Amino acid sequence: MRAALLILLGLAIGVIGTSQVMNALAARNPMPKAVMHTLGYHAGELKQAMKSQQCDAAKIQLHLLRLQSTSTDIVPTFGIADQGFTDAANKLQTTLQQAVAAAPATCASLATALKPVGEACQSCHQKYR
Ligand code: HEC
After folding, report:
1. Is pLDDT of 17 > 70?
2. Which of 122, 127, 32, 40 has the alpha carbon at shortest distance from 76?
3. Burial class (CB in 10 A: 0-12, 13-18, 19+), 108
4. How far is the CA of 129 from the centre of ligand 1 (A)?
5. Closest ligand 1 atom to Cα of 120
6. Is 85 in the pocket of ligand 1 (CB under 6 A)?
7. Would you list the domain boundaries of the chain?
8. Cβ-contact 109, 102 below 8 angstroms
9. Summary count for the chain: helices (H), strands (E)
10. Band of the pLDDT at 23, cuts 50, 70, 90?
11. 16 Cα to the center of ligand 1, angstroms
């Protein structure tokens, strides 16, 4: 009986300890998630603009530029030394460069410009998230 209780206690301590270590690791480097949340915010603002049919060219350009510059933070902050990951991040940068250059001024042209961007987000998430 006593041995069984001790084993249970040991397990509980192990579980608590593991979750604390995981939390500490996540807290030590908040940047990867911060970068993704920033991308998510700007992509969300653009989606919202399309949904409400309020596609102001200047606002669109601002969010596209923020997406583009934030996408350059992915590789240095994630520290994943995998060619596939770097390629996926580069792919996103390329699609965003093209979206910025297209300078969409209508909801329809924004939707066209964002399609390859969304695909670039998705294809990396499928493999690495
Ligand atoms: C090169 C790979 C890559 C690309 C490209 C990428 N992501 Fe991510 N994303 C990840 C990974 C890996 C995670 C999981 C991060 C984690 O859990 O620590 C993630 C997680 C997220 C999350 C959830 C954050 C959380 O708290 O778990 C959001 C939101 C997100 N990405 C948005 C985007 C958007 C929007 C784009 C495109 C504009 C994008 N991502 C492009 C790799 C990528």
Report:
1. no
2. 32
3. exposed
4. 7
5. 5
6. yes
7. 30-128
8. yes
9. 6, 0
10. low
11. 27
Task: State if residue 32 touches ligand 1 by the CB under 6 angstroms criterion.
Answer: yes
Residue among 22, 36, 48, 78 to mutate when testing ligand 1 (max atoms within 8 A of CB): 36
Distance from the alpha carbon of residue 104 to the mean position of ligand 1, in angstroms: 24
Contact 50, 106 (CB under 8 A): no
Residue 40 CA: nearest ligand 1 atom is: 35
Look up the pTM and report it.
0.84
Tens of pLDDT along 96-115? 999 999 999 999 999 999 99
Question: What pLDDT, on a 0 to 100 scale, did the predictor assign at position 22?
Answer: 61
Helix 83-102 / helix 57-71 crossing angle, nearest 10 deg? 160
Q: How much distance in Å is there from the Cα of 36 to the middle of ligand 1?
A: 5
Which CATH number fits the domain 30-128, given the four candidates 2.40.110.10, 1.20.120.10, 3.30.460.10, 3.40.1010.10? Answer: 1.20.120.10
For residue 115, the SS3 value is: helix
Note the pLDDT of residue 3.
Answer: 78
